Amino acid sequence: VHPNVSQGCQGGCATCSDYNGCLSCKPRLFFVLERIGMKQIGVCLSSCPSGYYGTRYPDINKCAKCKADCDTCFTRNFCTKCKSGFYLYSGKCLEKCPDGLEANNHTMECTSIVHCETSEWSPWSPCMKKGKTCGFKRGNEVRVREIIQHPSARGNPCPATTESRKCIVQRKRCQKEGKGKKNREEKRKKSNKDESKETRQESKGRAARRQNREQRENNNKTQPKKRKAPNKEPDLAPVDTAH
Asked: Which molecular function term from Gene Ontology is one that the record holds (predicted)?
């Protein structure tokens, strides 16, 4: 062992030196060189830092740098995330997306162009004018449709979702809702009034009959009962038997 190499290292190092840091790592750890000023120091990490990818070998596990435009990568030729100003497409970082694709500034990827999609038209509405379906000859009818898929930035925009056209209906009078309602209300009040009047009259009649009955009972109590005269047999004249 070289005099400058130590076996009693810390931080996951298997061997190290005072000048160069870690020279080899313990099993399953990755060896990577970190630059400090003009000097590179070896360190041992459980996973490779951003901008590096790990490769395992029988004798050592190493972290190697990704391409300059990659922020993270799986291998040197396959990026998983690009640095600012580049868009990811099939493992590569591009400044401009290929034809047929568009740049997604949210994910920083090249994605397929999405066009707008709408549902079928609904049936035409009843012919109306100023919110009414009567009292006119010419009006308008409307139909609508819904947006099923909103477009992406470069996709075809959505068409109109509402259509209107002129229509003709047979002229008819509108029922005056206010007048009809007023008449119904008046009829209801009159009916309630008549019922109340009949109820009051019936109550007065019952009260009068009850009062008369009580009066008769009081009179019977205060007046003495009349005794009936005994039945007398009529006096019979004497019968003349001289003849």
From this structure: signaling receptor binding
pLDDT digits (tens, 9 = 90+) for 131-150: 888 877 888 999 999 999 99
Region for 68 from its dihedrals, namely left if φ exceeds 0, alpha if ψ lies in -120 to 50, beta otherwise: alpha
pTM equals: 0.48
Identical fold, 7-65 and 69-112: yes
Q: Which fold has domain 7-65?
A: 2.10.220
Which sequence spans correspond to the domains of the chain?
7-65, 69-112, 118-147+156-168
SS3 173: coil
Exposure string (b/e) for 136-161, b if CB count within 10 Å is 16 or more? beebebeeebeeeeeeeeebeebeee
Tell me how far apart the alpha carbons of residues 53 and 95 are, in angstroms, rounded to a whole number. Answer: 22
The CATH architecture to which 69-112 belongs is Ribbon (2.10)
Q: Are 5 and 23 in contact (CB under 8 A)?
A: yes
Which residue in 59, 58, 60, 65 sits closest to 40, CA to CA?
Answer: 65
Q: Tokens at residue 62, please?
A: 């190493």
Angstrom distance (rounded) from CA 101 to CA 91 = 15
Query: How far apart (Å, rounded) are the C-alpha atoms in residues 95 and 69?
Result: 10
DSSP letter assigned to residue 7: S
